[in-house]
Structure formats: C-alpha cells, structure tokens
UniProtKB/TrEMBL annotation:
Keywords for the protein's UniProt record, in alphabetical order: Cell membrane, Membrane, Transmembrane, Transmembrane helix, Transport
Domain spans labelled ABC transmembrane type-1: 76-283
Record membrane topology: Multi-pass membrane protein
CDD domains attached to this UniProt entry: TM_PBP2 (cd06261)
PROSITE patterns on file: ABC_TM1
The UniProt record lists the keyword Lipoprotein: no
Primary residence: membrane
Cellular location(s): Cell membrane
Name assigned to this protein: ABC transporter permease
Assigned protein family: Belongs to the binding-protein-dependent transport system permease family. CysTW subfamily.
Membrane spanning stretches: 20-46, 53-73, 79-103, 110-130, 163-185, 218-242, 262-283
Entry annotated with the keyword Signal: no
Length: 294
C-alpha cells in the first residue's frame, strides 16, 4: 500500500504541474488584456484632463458631469432602448431557427449550423456596409420598391434612422442568439416531450409547459450576448444611423478621438459598465428563478 501511495504522489504532482502549465498562458492573457485594461480605464476615470495620455491629478468631476448632464442620461436611455429592441427582435427571430435545428433539422443539422456560423467568416464592418447599400437612397430596397410600383421615387425613410440601426444590429448578432438557444433546446430530454404527448398535451401546450421553460437559460444567455455589446456599439450608429440614433458608444468614441478627453471617456465607459452590470445581475436572478422552477 505504501509503495502504491508513493508511486501515485509523483503522478499527482506532475498532473498538477501540467494543468498549471496549460492554464498559465490563458491566465496571463486574461490578466494583461482584460484586467489591466479595466484597471487602466478605472484609473483614467478619476483623472483630470490636461491633454496628456494619463491625465493629471485625481478628481470625481468626470462622474459629476456624467450624472448631472441630461445629455448623457438621454443618450444612455436611448442606447438601452435600442439595445433592448435589438435583443427582443434577435431572440424572437432566432428562437424558431434554433427550434428547427434542435428538433426538425435531422441530417441537415450540420449543414444548417455551418450556414448559421457563416457570417462569422466576414468582417462585421462589411456586413454593416452591406446594409447601408441596401437601405440607401438609391439602394437595393428603394430600387425594388420603385420597380414593383409600390413607390414612384426613392425615400430617405430607411437609412439614418433608429430602425436601420436595429435591423443592422439584429442581423449582425443573430448567430450569437441562435447558438445558445439551440444548445439549450438540444439538451432537453426527448422523453419529457414524449411524456407530455402521452399525457394528452397538445403540441402548443407541450411547447409552453415543457420546451419553453427548459430553454429559458439559453434564451437569457442569448439575450445577454446580444444586449451587452449592442449597448456600447458605435460603428453601426455611425454608418447607418442619424443624429436620432446616436448611442453612448458614439460619445465615448468621440471623447477618446476628436475631443481627446480620455479621462471623461473613461468615466463614461465606467458608467456604462455599471449599468450593464445591473442588467446582468437582474438576468442572473431571473435565470436562477427559472432554474428553480424547472
């Protein structure tokens, strides 16, 4: 017995050393690229702007301006509303696709999953420009409406509007919503659905009482994956949105760019992160409630 223990001890130590060696690169990258960047943003948020890279002195004036100026409240609220609409539209359209993939795709599942992930092969910027071409004054949509006789001349009602931002973002983040919902649906035991059918439940009742509650963790994960990045998006509002579509990410980018006020841009970033953190905590609480029910 003592010999067996003695031989297992070096194996355990070597296995532990191997795990540490494998985890160390990822841990270093996480620390350098995430924690260091986050710490730098927090540091800059409490600095005064003197035109230098790291600012001068420590102050809370940046946060006072963020809280007291109604402009930032208005833009932040607009960003949250647009992100919420994008999230709702994306999840609602992604759920039927994920449902089909999980229960009805059959042998075509692999091909369809490949097609779902195909947009990842192209640049996000190119997809936004594609929508700009579709929605432009002389774009694809206006041309199609004129050719079909619905309208007699092009209109500016599509581009540079909040609706254009919502459509573009919903299309861009659709794969991010489809995949987690599909995983949640695919893990539902088929025996539960069969049991509901054997007990006389109709298909809609079976979906409402069995499938939907068990897929809610995936739905909430998809909603978070879509909501969090869309709140701070600035590329899409800049390209397909107008003044009425200005989002908080656009203001942050302007502070770090043209305004050259990195401390105030950092303070805006911290404020947005706090708002998103509150949303994540609410989603976490909701996920736990659904988890306890199921």
């Amino acid at each position: 017995m003592s010999t067996l223990v003695a031989t297992r001890a070096p194996e355990a130590r070597s296995s532990s050393g191997f795990r540490i060696a494998m985890l160390l690169p990822g841990a270093l990258v996480t620390f350098l690229l995430i924690l260091f960047a986050l710490g730098l943003v927090l540091f800059l948020a409490f600095r005064g702007n003197d035109g230098s890279l790291l600012g001068a002195g420590f102050t809370v004036a940046n946060f006072v301006t963020v809280v007291s100026d109604p402009l930032y409240w208005t833009v932040t609220l607009r960003s949250l509303v647009i992100a919420a609409v994008v999230t709702l539209a994306t999840v609602v359209t992604a759920y039927p696709v994920a449902y089909y993939l999980a229960f009805h795709a059959g042998r075509r599942r692999g091909l369809l999953l490949f097609l779902v992930t195909l947009p990842f092969w192209t640049s996000y910027l190119l997809r936004v420009f594609a929508w700009k071409i579709v929605l432009a004054y002389n774009g694809v949509l206006n041309s199609a409406l004129i050719e079909s006789g619905i309208w007699s001349e092009p209109t500016l009602a599509f581009l540079n509007t909040p609706a254009a931002v919502v459509v573009t973002l919903a299309h861009a983040y659709a794969p991010f919503a489809i995949l987690p919902i599909y995983v949640a649906l695919d893990t539902i035991p088929k025996s539960l659905i069969e049991a509901a059918s054997d007990l006389g439940a109709r298909p809609f009742t079976s979906f409402r009482r069995v499938v939907l509650p068990n897929s809610m963790p995936g739905v909430l994960a998809a909603a978070l994956v879509v909501f969090v990045p869309t709140v701070g998006d600035y590329v899409t509002p800049a390209l397909v949105g107008g003044p009425a579509s200005t989002m908080i990410g656009t203001l942050i980018q302007a502070e770090f760019g043209k305004a050259n006020d990195w401390p105030f841009g950092a303070a805006l970033s911290v404020a947005v992160m706090l708002v998103i953190l509150c949303v994540v905590l609410v989603a976490r609480f909701t996920d736990r409630r659904f988890g306890s029910r199921t």
